[in-house]
UniProtKB/TrEMBL annotation:
<comment type="similarity">
    <text>Belongs to the SLC13A/DASS transporter (TC 2.A.47) family. NADC subfamily.</text>
</comment>
<keyword id="KW-0472">Membrane</keyword>
<dbReference type="Pfam" id="PF00939">
    <property type="entry name" value="Na_sulph_symp"/>
</dbReference>
<keyword id="KW-0739">Sodium transport</keyword>
<feature type="transmembrane region" description="Helical">
    <location>
        <begin position="167"/>
        <end position="184"/>
    </location>
</feature>
<feature type="transmembrane region" description="Helical">
    <location>
        <begin position="297"/>
        <end position="316"/>
    </location>
</feature>
<feature type="transmembrane region" description="Helical">
    <location>
        <begin position="69"/>
        <end position="92"/>
    </location>
</feature>
<keyword id="KW-0813">Transport</keyword>
<feature type="transmembrane region" description="Helical">
    <location>
        <begin position="21"/>
        <end position="49"/>
    </location>
</feature>
<feature type="transmembrane region" description="Helical">
    <location>
        <begin position="128"/>
        <end position="147"/>
    </location>
</feature>
<feature type="transmembrane region" description="Helical">
    <location>
        <begin position="254"/>
        <end position="285"/>
    </location>
</feature>
<feature type="transmembrane region" description="Helical">
    <location>
        <begin position="337"/>
        <end position="361"/>
    </location>
</feature>
<keyword id="KW-0406">Ion transport</keyword>
<dbReference type="InterPro" id="IPR031312">
    <property type="entry name" value="Na/sul_symport_CS"/>
</dbReference>
<dbReference type="GO" id="GO:0005886">
    <property type="term" value="C:plasma membrane"/>
</dbReference>
<dbReference type="GO" id="GO:0015382">
    <property type="term" value="F:sodium:sulfate symporter activity"/>
</dbReference>
<keyword id="KW-0812">Transmembrane</keyword>
Length: 381
């Protein structure tokens, strides 16, 4: 075979480079959407299911709220994002600092044209609209109310209702802000004159029809089913039986128990939906922690994080499926990239749970709010 001419070789090289850019940008969007959701309780459905399950099973803890979760999760999110960027950059584009940061290199005509197109498309968006401004304000207000409800180091606004302790929760804030979306008009009040008649047009930011079509009702049903499953396990004494069978695991090192739990959950969530995975494993891992006399948060927090690490397959996560549908990725591209990020995620979570999360919840002390499971003479699983 004859060698390709220089022009054809250059074209092939550019196509390979652009193909790598397509792949890495698509994966960045999908993976960052998942990783960023780890930061808050409401960021992913798995975090929300964990918080509701934990607060229902351990009502006297009052330690998992929007603020405490943000404090423990923001370092995890930042570290995973940075390491994921390094991994994807090396895997698809190589790691050349000079080209990455444009050290001593001027923009080519093609790059300047691309930047011009991006600027033109940005200008077409126009100024920020009134509904967008209101949405941003309501979002900031909701975040502030979540943080200040019960920050821990000072009394929060929930202390203003001492007679109704326990009624002011994070759900209260979400419901109030959600109600405002149905009340605040989507447009500034416009006045049209027709002779002596004046007409005011009114449309809320969101209508019930729009809410009904966009609301993920399956999450609410799944969460409710999880609560019913947990109550059934407790009433039927199934959770106690599972705890007694899991007691022998107490002979293993704690870090190994946590690692095994993380690996199992991460593997299952690749083939099952994240909400279904966390709903199945929470009623199992909670009795496990109680049986081996370990703070339940020591096992539940890593497992909750790892449930969101669905990076391997297009079907593992809705974000993966969306970017895969554009046709720039092959399944093996996502498998190679996702495997590395899965390993990064589990490693960072293990580092976090053994270091800075420990003093936040005093994890090495078995809490008074967790039940005491009497030891049994079981010899195996």
């Amino acid at each position: 075979k004859q060698n390709l001419p220089p022009a054809e070789t250059g074209r092939k090289s550019r196509e390979d480079k652009y193909s790598g850019i397509f792949k890495v940008m698509s994966l960045c969007v999908a993976y960052s959407a998942t990783i960023g959701g780890l930061t808050t309780i409401t960021g992913t459905s798995t975090n929300l299911i964990f918080a509701e399950h934990f607060n229902t099973r351990y009502p006297f803890c009052q330690c998992i709220n929007f603020g405490s979760w943000f404090i423990l999760s923001i370092p995890i999110t930042v570290i995973i994002l940075l390491l994921s960027w390094v991994w994807l950059q090396w895997l698809f584009l190589g790691f050349d600092f000079k080209n990455m940061f444009k050290c001593g290199k001027n923009k080519t005509a093609r790059e300047e044209a691309s930047a011009q197109v991006i600027q033109e498309e940005y200008k077409k968006l126009g100024p920020i609209s009134y509904p967008e401004i209101v949405t941003v304000i309501l979002f900031i207000l909701m975040t502030l109310l979540w943080f200040t409800r019960d920050p821990g180091f000072i009394p929060g606004w929930s202390s203003l209702f001492p007679k109704y302790k326990g009624y002011a929760t994070d759900s209260t804030t979400a419901l109030v802000i959600g109600l405002l979306f149905f009340i605040i008009p989507a447009k500034t009040f416009s006045r049209t004159s027709n002779g002596e008649n004046t007409v005011f047009g009114y449309t809320p930011l969101i209508t019930w029809k729009e809410f009904q079509s966009c609301m993920p009702w399956e999450i609410a049903i799944l969460v409710g089913g999880g609560f019913a499953l947990a109550d059934g396990c407790e009433v039927s004494k199934l959770s106690e039986w599972v705890a007694s069978k899991l007691t022998p695991l107490g002979s293993l090192p704690l870090w190994l128990i946590i690692l095994i739990s993380c690996l199992i959950v991460t593997s299952v969530t690749e083939v099952a939906s994240n909400p279904a995975t966390i709903t199945i494993f929470l009623p199992i891992l909670s009795p496990l922690a109680e049986a081996i006399h370990v703070n339940p948060l020591f096992i539940l927090i890593p497992a909750t994080f790892c449930t969101s690490f669905a990076f391997l397959l297009p079907v593992a996560n809705p974000a993966n499926a969306i970017v895969f549908s554009y046709g720039h990725l092959a399944v093996m591209d996502m498998v190679k990239a996702g495997l590395g990020i899965n390993i990064i995620g589990v490693a960072v979570v293990m580092l976090a749970i053994m270091t800075w999360i420990v003093p936040i919840f005093d994890l090495y002390t078995y809490p008074s709010w967790a039940p005491i499971i009497p030891s049994t003479n079981t010899t195996g699983l």
